[in-house]
Design a protein that fits this description.
about 675 residues; Heat Shock Protein 90; Ribosomal Protein S5, domain 2; 22 helices; 24 strands
């Protein structure tokens, strides 16, 4: 909890202004990345991370996030801003959801700044302004340019800010970055009337900040926040901030989530590996590294655990900001891991010369979290969205701290060391076998002149952007598809039976499978190290299978193959699943196709209500082979009438876990999943 000295030391003199706000509204993508749902939720991160920065600095232990509906008070306040001559508001609409963040930190300074207005107003309305330019205010922070709060303000139809300091409340409201009036002191009663029940805990704090905003619908393509994404944002930060209470209250969905992890990133690694068989307990190190040139400290936290899968999962953070593209801190981690593992293996005679492993061999089954804390004014990112860290000193810091700690750990835990080395050597042997198998395929496919597989019925077009390929199981369905297609742009690739479950299959197993090898050759983009998406021959790859249990299983096997081994195709948006109809409804000469039991009931209900004795033919399709070529074209292949599901990866972690649970070797997690979700199958969900 903050004391009087902390409050006294955090004053207006620490808020530095660097310049002006309209550029944010003109080019929001430069400041938040995009104006779609990703950019929308980036606003939540910006405000939430200001509270997290207070916690990193050692002030405040509780952070709350609320999602509520816009009420009449918000609408009237927005209109009052519109009537303010200083306001640029010229729209009647505001978003229908309200986001509020509260913390019990020191509270934004409210005293007069050297520029002549309150420091609180400076922080919320000026670009390049904040306490993160002064080390005395924040030694480690996610903020880089002092843009976060002011950018969110500029992109919000309405923002309210309240601060509690020295037992007093201070308040200011804004519309599209323009304040209605100067910061003023208000009573507790006035505070509650403005913020309603989201301020219930805030008034109990000794000090703190509360920021509430409603996004501008003229800027964003959507203004509806996802409670799932908001929960994930909170949960990610809770794992990083050991000992800090995070609370999420959804007033719309009527749900409440609390997160507190004493183990911090150790708990995160355990969570990421919960569906996998781990080879050892989580390795963890936390230490500070001092830059010999500048004398500045960098805090290092790192957790690592190997499992028995073939996939790597590394998450990296800088001052609780996720860096999905990694950066110098991840490079330092990889360099140290390779050096320590090689030194240990050679010292203990665990490898032979022919078995020497490379960096890629260390990645199979590796789960790790790399977390560094650095002075905010030293941070160097590639952009305001902070996807990749560029600080060279971060690489040195992580390398030295991790190398020393891991070397000691392996010496003290020889069984763990040998288990990891053996895992790495198995990966190396598999890599060599896969390369040999791949080279054999290349020699056979290119040097001997065998190009496209004979079973492929290719299309006439050679333009990938207009070409599509249907991957179909069964000779009868494949035959109908070949006859019913439009040869100009539609290719057909028939499969024989169910393909290999590739969840745990390495490249050598895939190229040894005749069906999968031919499919890879047909797609033209290669696989593994030779993959090149520019060589992909079709920009619509469509899995077309029967609408029954077997068909769903075959589709799942196909999705597993693409997710695990051709993931770039999915990420590019080129993978689809066809939606064949379940029923053909016939009444007289009229025919209509429906795609679910629910749609069938909706179609038939009014007909039977009007005439209970109506003669209606209902044909349930058991498979694509039951359709003649014309029917298959009309229902499933004609771009004008067909239904396709585009496959996208919304959450990589959840997708990874889903495939591991449903398609992996462990029976217990799959059984638990089926038992938990059986009711959905009964409801035909």
């Amino acid at each position: 909890m903050a004391n009087s000295n902390d409050l006294k030391n955090y004053q207006a003199s620490q808020i530095k202004v660097l310049e002006g706000l309209e550029p944010v509204r003109k080019r929001p993508g430069m400041y938040i990345g995009s104006t779609d749902t990703k950019g929308l939720h980036h606003l939540v991160k910006e405000i939430l991370d200001n509270s997290v920065d207070e916690a990193i600095a050692g002030f405040g232990k509780t952070i709350q996030l609320f999602r509520s509906e816009t009420n009449e008070y918000h609408r009237q306040l927005f209109l009052s801003h519109k009537n303010n001559k200083k306001s640029t508001a010229d729209e009647k609409e505001i978003g229908n959801q309200v986001v509020t963040v509260t913390d019990n930190g020191r509270g934004i300074p409210t005293d007069m700044h050297e520029s002549g207005v309150s420091a609180m107003e400076i922080v919320m309305t000026k670009l390049h302004a904040g306490g993160k330019f002064e080390e005395t205010a924040y030694k480690a922070s996610g903020g880089l340019h002092g843009i976060g709060s002011s950018a969110v303000n500029a992109l919000s139809s309405l923002m309210q800010v309240a601060v509690k300091r020295n037992g007093k409340y201070f308040y200011q409201s804004h519309s599209r970055g323009i304040p209605a009036e100067s910061v003023k002191e208000i009573t507790e009663k006035e505070l509650l009337s403005k913020f309603d029940d989201v301020a219930a805990d805030f008034i109990k704090y000794e000090s703190g900040s509360m920021v509430q905003f409603i996004v501008d619908p003229t800027i964003f393509s959507t203004v509806d926040f996802s409670h799932k994404q908001m929960i994930q944002i909170v949960k990610d930060r809770a794992y990083l901030m050991a000992g800090i209470y995070f609370q999420f209250f959804d007033r719309i969905e009527k749900l409440e989530q609390h997160y507190y992890f004493e183990g911090g990133i150790r708990s995160l690694v355990e969570h990421l590996n919960m569906t996998r068989k781990s080879l050892h307990k989580v390795f963890y190190v936390s230490d500070d590294w001092q830059d010999p040139d500048t004398g500045k400290n960098i805090g290092i936290e790192l957790a690592l655990q190997y499992n028995d899968t073939y996939n790597e999962h590394i998450e990296s953070y800088v001052n609780v900001i996720n860096t999905p593209d990694g950066g110098t801190h991840v490079q330092g981690f990889r360099l140290a891991l390779g050096r320590v593992m090689r030194d240990y293996a050679e010292k203990n005679n665990l490898i032979k010369e022919k078995e020497a492993f490379v960096a890629d061999d260390l990645r199979e089954g590796l789960t790790a979290v790399v977390f560094v804390k650095m002075p905010a004014n030293d941070l160097q990112f590639e952009s305001q969205t902070k996807a990749k860290l560029n600080n060279a000193e971060a690489q040195t810091a992580v390398y030295q701290v991790f190398k020393d700690a891991l070397s000691t750990y392996l010496e003290e835990n020889p069984k763990v060391a040998r288990a990891i080395i053996e895992k790495v050597l198995i990966s190396a042997r598999a890599r060599l076998a896969a390369r040999a198998a791949k080279d054999a395929v290349i020699r056979k496919g290119l040097l001997e002149g065998v190009s496209l597989p004979g079973k492929l019925a290719d299309c006439q077009s050679r333009q990938a952007s207009e070409s599509e390929i249907y991957i179909v199981e069964g000779d009868s369905a494949g035959g109908s598809a070949k006859q019913g297609r439009d040869r100009k742009f539609q290719a057909i690739f028939p499969l024989r039976g169910k393909i290999l479950n590739t969840e745990r299959a390495r490249l050598d197993k895939i190229v040894a499978s005749e069906e999968l090898k031919n499919l890879v050759i047909a797609l033209g983009c290669g696989i593994g190290e030779s993959f090149n998406i520019e060589k992909l021959r079709y920009h619509r790859i469509i899995l077309m299978n029967d609408a029954d249990v077997d068909g769903e299983h075959i589709t799942t096997l196909g999705l597993t193959f693409f997710f695990r081994h051709l993931k770039q195709i999915v990420e590019a948006g080129y993978l689809y699943v066809a939606m064949p109809p379940l029923y053909k409804i016939t009444q007289g000469k009229d025919e209509q196709y429906v795609y679910s039991d629910e749609d069938k009931d909706k179609l038939l209900a009014p007909v039977y209500a009007k005439d209970p004795n109506a003669k209606i033919g209902v044909q349930r399709y058991k498979g694509l082979g039951e359709m003649n070529p014309e029917q298959l074209w009309t229902t499933t292949m004609d771009p004008k009438t067909r239904m396709l599901k585009k496959i996208a990866i919304e959450d990589a972690d959840k997708s990874d876990n889903a495939f591991e649970v449903l398609m992996g070797d462990e029976v217990a997690p799959r059984k638990k999943f089926i038992q938990s979700h059986a009711y959905m199958a009964q409801l035909d969900v």
